[in-house]
Amino acid sequence: MTTEAPTPATLYAPYQRDGRFFHPWGGERRSFLDLLRWQLRRAPGRARRPRAPVPAVVNDGASLARDAPAAELTWIGHASFALHEGTRTVLFDPHFGPRALVPRRQSPVGLPLASVPADSIALLSHNHYDHLDAWTLARLPRSLAWRVPLGLARTVRSFGFEDVRELGWWGEDEIGGWRFTFVPMQHWSNRFGQAPYLTLWGGWLVDTGRTRLLCAADSGYFHGFAEIGRRFAPLDAALLPIGAYQPRWFMRPVHMDPGEALAAFRDTGARLLVPHHWGAFDLADEAVDEAPRELRRLLATPRHADLAGRVRLLAIGETLIL
């Protein structure tokens, strides 16, 4: 018996039923019992400590106040980035806080929160604590414009933000000539006070008119990357997660490992890959700095050697000129 691969049409099918969101292509869900099974099986002596401090550079954020003739992408840490082009700044999943609910941050924040321009735009991918951070929302300028998944406007507005708009998959918005498209990802949503799957999850495609990039904050590997690449080509960069992937039996549906991230990169056809979702929070069974080591190992193999010159592993606080 064979199982047919999902078609692109499933990416455009209805994705909400009885008030809950789901993957129309049948992406596997994780249950509370699965979570409990994982926690009970975790080896007490597993080596999660990083071998060395996560690479970081000092960045005072002053460049965000200047006119940038070319797009500048700065890794704030984990899944947080600042994209600055011209006089506009966009934040992806801004997280400047010391914790992701329980896990404590194990590396510095790449930019001072005080350097965020008051007229910035913030893009939110989903409601997990390593992406939607209450500590950060309480301290960002209230003048920020937010674009968020379906179901999360009320949460963001509760912190005093007024310019908040929800989008569903393939929904678009334009601000000052920049176009923002919320695209499907294979993940899930859950937060204390919100039942699982009550709010949507996804990634962001940003088109500035000069630069076009995809930020996939959290996702398992799925056929959506190929469709995004087909629909939005050419892409200057794909920001793809590579961490929190062990154990595979539990994480595979919702978190790519480095090898799957390389496959997703090929699918998108992007010019550059910027890996993220590692180095900050201990979220899985691998050490927080294991993912880039595994990625480098794969890039040194004949199968992936052709990609080596197109992967940019940034230090926290480092800025890449796109």
Task: Please tell me about this protein's structure.
- With 322 residues, the chain is an alpha/beta fold.
- The protein has one domain (60-321): Ribonuclease Z/Hydroxyacylglutathione hydrolase-like (Metallo-beta-lactamase, Chain A).
- The protein is 16% helix and 22% strand.
- It contains 7 helices and 15 strands.
- The strands form 3 sheets. Strands 8-7-6-5-4-3-15 form a 7-stranded mixed beta sheet.
- Helix 4 links the parallel strand 12 and strand 13.
- The radius of gyration is 18 Å and the shape is globular.
- 46% of the residues are buried.
- The model has no long low-confidence stretch (mean pLDDT 93).
What descriptors fit this protein?
322 residues; alpha/beta; Metallo-beta-lactamase, Chain A; seven-stranded mixed beta sheet; six-stranded mixed beta sheet; 7 helices; 15 strands; 22% strand
